[in-house]
Amino acid sequence: MLLAGNELEVIPGANPISEVEERYIASGDKMMEEGKPAEAYDFYSKAWDIGAFEYIDEVNDKLDKCSAIIKKSHVIGAVIGTVLAAAVIIPFCRTYYFDVNWMFGYAEFLKDPGFFLAGHHPWAVLAFSVLFLYSSYVSAMELMSNKIRFRSGAGARIGLAVLVAFGLALLLQSTVVLLNATGFMHIFTLIAWLFTFWV
Fold first, then answer.
1. What is the Cα–Cα distance from 186 to 4, expressed in whole angstroms?
2. Which helix (H) or strand (E) holds 25?
3. Separation in Å, CA 34 to CA 30, 31, 69, 160
4. Which whole number is the average pLDDT over 90-100?
5. 115-132 b/e with 16+ CB inside 10 Å = b?
6. Which residues are registered as beta bridge partners of 4?
7. Residue 128 and residue 131: Cα distance in Å, rounded?
8. What CA–CA distance (Å, rounded) separates 127 from 130?
9. Given pLDDT bands bounded at 50, 70 and 90, which one contains residue 14?
10. Residue 71 in contact with residue 151, Cβ under 8 Å?
11. Alpha-carbon torsion 93, 99, 100, 106, what sign?
12. Contacts by 89-94 with C-beta closer than 8 Å and gap 24+?
């Protein structure tokens, strides 16, 4: 509508704000038809920011659809990245914690076979490392969700998620190795020992 003149007369007509939102929605629909949900999400977000009442439900549905498509790619990539990381990390951790288990000088006594936690420690840290693989998957999904429009193609999104999940897994495992070298990980070994002792 348009308010005109001193009397602020109401003249029926098209709403220019709604027209802009309609163009954003149409552009988003076109991107979806071309298989570009990331670009479509961007257009639908602009339409949502305008917030014309008559399009609220429609835009929300379209945003949810885009998010679901994008998230599916991220999940596939994060799972692949985590599985690849597990194939590398688990054998490494098995060898490292059982055969090497390097520690700083002040913590060397923790490796003494006579120390009551020495036999439990490699298994406890190995189990903790496996749990950290799940943490890397969760962290990758959270990071990818924050970068939801970073890549448009499904292949690119999956590939990026693979790299992010694999990289985070290596980073977290490096942190565990460093904490183990300080002797800090024996706290978790003690907890595991107490659990098995009482159970």
1. 78
2. helix 16-33
3. 6, 5, 13, 21
4. 88
5. eeebebbbebbeebbeeb
6. 9
7. 5
8. 5
9. low
10. no
11. positive
12. 89/129, 89/133, 89/169, 89/170, 89/173, 90/126, 90/129, 90/130, 92/173, 93/125, 93/126, 93/129, 93/173, 94/126
Per-residue pLDDT reduced to its tens digit, 28-77 = 999 999 888 888 998 999 999 987 778 889 999 999 999 899 889 899 99
Unique residue bearing structure tokens 């985590």: 82
- Taking the CA of residue 194 as centre, how many other CA atoms within 13 Å lie in the half-sphere pointing to its CB? 6
Write the burial class of residue 67 (CB in 10 Å: 0-12 exposed, 13-18 middle, 19+ buried). Answer: middle
Tokens of 178: 């460093």
**How many C-beta atoms surround the C-beta of residue 5 within 10 A?**
7
Residue that has been written with the tokens 């688990």 in this structure: 90
Residues facing 9 on adjacent strands: 4
Q: 142: pLDDT confidence band, cut at 50, 70 and 90? A: confident
Expressed in angstroms, the distance from the first to the final Cα of the chain is 75
Neighbours of 69 (CB within 10 A): 17
